[in-house]
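Severity: low
Component: inverse-folding endpoint
Summary: output formatting inconsistent between runs
Steps to reproduce: submit the following structure tokens with default settings.
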């Protein structure tokens, strides 16, 4: 009897990933509240991971697959029956996420209205005592002042997914690196590890360092029209986009580089390499979150004063907290 495969829709094909911008905003707001409210000494940043998460759950119905043909006999090309969720199976993500969410909710956590991958529980007698968890598939990032509740959460996770839980002070999460200074209450975030990987991937050992990612002709068409390999160029711009989580100072340069993804030229590649040269000189640059209260900062872009004929200004306003 033939079976109909599950439909490909928003319920089966999705990633259970929390918004990293909202996570950083949460970190900033909590640090400000802790400094102003006098409970900075209670503030901690933690992470946990469930490495074999999907395998902990059985599939609702058996799935079937075929092993790679280059495996040794008798496994090569053999058909197999899959009983548990596995990485790569479209339905696995949602099955684990639903179970993970159910567990946190059962412990008393409430989900954020704007992002269901964020959970918070607050002490009923003291609003400054809480745990906030951001989930990214099977990785959790926690901002907390309620140590006993967080340890209770870890025990519940360990019991639900036995033998797999890994937890520690947060140093890397969502592709970002974090350093928290308990003395000052400041948390610094960076894309250092991703930058180092990018520089190694494109063999930048002999590349001279540049102090800015921008060239004066950033908005102009290139005078080097020789085509270059689009896949290599797109790989570079794709890795640069990943850095924009924190490296906002290269935002315009990366945007302009991406506009040439379809048919990049040697001149476009030279401009993109300029970004690498800048990153090489400042691989660990990133924001430091330290405030007594949230601060709204506005900045305007004068288009680098390169429009000599018109003398015009961009007048774009950028707001950040």
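Observed output (run 2 of 3):
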């Amino acid at each position: 009897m033939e079976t109909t495969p599950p439909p490909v829709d928003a319920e089966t094909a999705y990633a259970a990933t929390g918004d990293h911008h909202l996570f950083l905003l949460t970190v900033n707001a909590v640090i400000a509240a802790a400094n102003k409210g006098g409970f900075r000494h209670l503030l901690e940043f933690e992470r946990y991971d469930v490495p074999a998460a999907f395998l902990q759950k059985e599939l609702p119905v058996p799935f079937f697959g075929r092993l790679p043909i280059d495996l040794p006999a008798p496994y090569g090309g053999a058909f197999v029956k899959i009983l548990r969720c596995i990485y790569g199976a479209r339905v696995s993500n949602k099955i684990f996420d639903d179970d993970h969410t159910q567990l946190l909710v059962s412990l008393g956590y409430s989900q954020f209205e704007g992002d269901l991958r964020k959970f918070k529980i607050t002490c009923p007698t003291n609003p400054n005592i809480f745990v906030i968890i951001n989930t990214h598939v099977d990785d959790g990032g926690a901002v907390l002042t309620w140590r006993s509740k967080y340890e209770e959460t870890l025990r519940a996770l360990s019991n639900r997914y036995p033998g797999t839980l890994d937890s520690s002070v947060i140093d890397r999460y969502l592709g970002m690196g974090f350093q928290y200074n308990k003395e000052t209450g400041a948390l610094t975030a960076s894309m250092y590890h991703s930058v180092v990987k990018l520089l190694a991937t494109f063999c930048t050992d002999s590349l001279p360092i540049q102090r800015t990612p921008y060239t004066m002709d950033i908005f102009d068409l290139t005078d080097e029209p020789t085509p270059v390999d689009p896949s290599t160029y797109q790989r570079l711009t794709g890795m640069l986009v990943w850095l924009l989580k924190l490296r906002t100072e290269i935002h315009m340069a990366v945007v302009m580089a991406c506009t040439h993804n379809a048919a990049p030229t040697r001149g476009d590649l030279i401009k993109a390499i300029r970004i690498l040269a800048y990153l090489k000189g400042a691989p660990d640059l990133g924001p430091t979150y330290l405030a007594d209260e949230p601060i709204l900062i506005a900045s305007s872009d004068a288009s680098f004063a390169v429009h000599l004929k018109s003398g015009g200004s961009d007048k774009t306003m950028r707001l950040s907290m």
